[in-house]
Specification:
single chain, globular, five-stranded antiparallel beta sheet, 90 residues, alpha+beta
C-alpha cells in the first residue's frame, strides 16, 4: 500500500493531498529514510511524522483495504509521541 494512502486511510491525516505535501516536504520518514508519497509500505515498517507541533513515531501493524475496516482495528501502534515546543516570536 502506498504511504500517502495509508496515512489517509488510517486517519493520521485528513486528506491524501496533505499526506503528499508532508512527504514532499521531507516530514515523513520510513525506516530511517525520507520517503516519497508512493513508497510501498509493509507490515512492521516504522514511520516517523513531523507535524507542526509534534513528532509521532509509529509501527505499521496491518495494511487496511478501506477506511471502513479501521473502525475497530487500529492499523498502527504508536511507539513515541513528543510535543515540539514552539518558539515565541514577538
Amino acid at each position: 500500500m502506498r504511504l500517502d494512502l495509508f496515512l489517509k486511510i488510517s486517519r493520521l491525516v485528513k486528506r491524501r493531498a496533505v499526506a503528499r505535501s508532508l512527504c514532499d516536504a521531507g516530514r515523513v520518514i520510513v525506516n530511517g529514510h525520507e520517503s516519497k508519497p508512493g513508497k510501498e509500505l509493509r507490515q512492521g515498517d516504522v514511520i516517523e511524522i513531523l507535524f507542526n507541533a509534534k513528532r509521532v513515531e509509529l509501527e505499521v501493524l496491518s495494511l487496511p483495504l478501506s477506511p471502513k475496516n479501521t473502525n475497530t482495528d487500529v492499523p498502527y501502534r504508536i511507539i513515541a509521541e513528543k510535543t515540539i515546543p514552539q518558539e515565541n516570536t514577538v
